[in-house]
Amino acid sequence: AERKKTPALMKYFSEKNRLLAPYLFYEDYFVKGKPAWVPKRNLSLLDVLEIAPETEGVPVLAHPGAYFQKTSREDLAVLKESGLEGLEVYTFYHDSSQTELYKKIAEELDLVPVAGSDFHGKIKPHIHFGSLKEGQYWMVEELRK
């Protein structure tokens, strides 16, 4: 309630900007040249796997069929040995053959098979929240172990 009275933040709480507020706030504070901008550091997958436990992160490889098409089963085994815990199996990015392939690999490597719609709100209007039916809560429970 107090933050709504802070002059610098008032525009983000107006009814007019309600839906766009997160994007407007980001543009006003987090892009290059703005007060909260921090230079981005590119990390390799192995770097991420190394620091994930320190940040209480749970490393899961998303969209393997879309962005990591040249990643072999052997590559995924190396990532598993380095700390990978889950593999996105169910996603709109995969066709049925890719889904079956990654499901099999997840099983063989003892990776938790997970589901992700890649829902990001207005920036991906063709993806609707909750439209991917394969996701189950047991996946989350497995990742929490």
From TrEMBL:
Q: Please name the InterPro entries in this protein's record.
A: PHP_domain (IPR052018), Pol/histidinol_Pase-like (IPR016195)
Query: What are the GO MF terms of this UniProt record?
Result: 5'-3' DNA exonuclease activity; 5'-3' RNA exonuclease activity
What PANTHER family would the database entry show?
EXONUCLEASE, POLYMERASE_HISTIDINOL PHOSPHATASE N-TERMINAL DOMAIN-CONTAINING PROTEIN
Q: What is this protein called?
A: PHP domain-containing protein
Which organism is the protein's source?
Answer: marine sediment metagenome
Q: What is the lineage of its organism?
A: unclassified sequences, metagenomes, ecological metagenomes
